[in-house]
Amino acid sequence: MSDNQLINRTVDEIRRICDPLSIILVSNKVNTEGDLVGFKLVVIVPDGDESVGELECRLYMQIDSDIPYDLVLYSQSEWEQFKNDIGSFAWKIHNTGAYIYGEKL
């Protein structure tokens, strides 16, 4: 399975479980042979009844992956608050991450 297929399968599972506004690829790690060995995604979700922490736990419990992955979740209001805060993680991701689902918010 190609690197993109592994990441895309995880993105598809996230979309199946919740209704994200955007998903951003933060980083991917490869070994010396060039094989994908891990990746990190930021998931921006609408403000809602379920806490971001509860949703994050649910995603980790329901998504199996052949390689390790990390998720960082932001509610829409959190993202709006931090994406323009120079030096914050959200600001860095907003300016350097690869949007792989949804629009750049």
Structure description:
- With 105 residues, the chain is α+β, with helices and mostly antiparallel strands.
- It has a single domain (3-102), classed as Beta Polymerase, domain 2.
- Helix content is 39%, strand content 30%.
- The chain has four helices and four strands.
- The chain has a four-stranded mixed beta sheet with strand order 3-2-1-4, with helices on both faces.
- The longest helix has 15 residues, at 3-17.
- The radius of gyration is 14 Å and the shape is globular.
- The N and C termini lie far apart (30 Å).
- The mean pLDDT is 92.
The top level CATH class name = Alpha Beta
**Helix residue percentage:** 25-40%
Secondary-structure class: alpha+beta
Strand content: 25-35%
Q: What is the general shape?
A: globular
Secondary-structure element order, N to C:
HEEHEHHE
- Determine the mean pLDDT: 92
Largest sheet: 4 strands, mixed
- CATH architecture descriptor name: 2-Layer Sandwich
Number of helices, where a helix is a run of at least 4 consecutive DSSP H or I residues? 4
* Number of β-strand runs: 4
Number of domains: 1
CATH-derived topology: Beta Polymerase, domain 2
Q: Which parts are unreliable, with pLDDT below 50 for 5 consecutive residues or more?
A: none
Q: How large is the radius of gyration?
A: 14 Å
Strand order of the largest sheet: 3-2-1-4
C-alpha termini separation: 30 Å
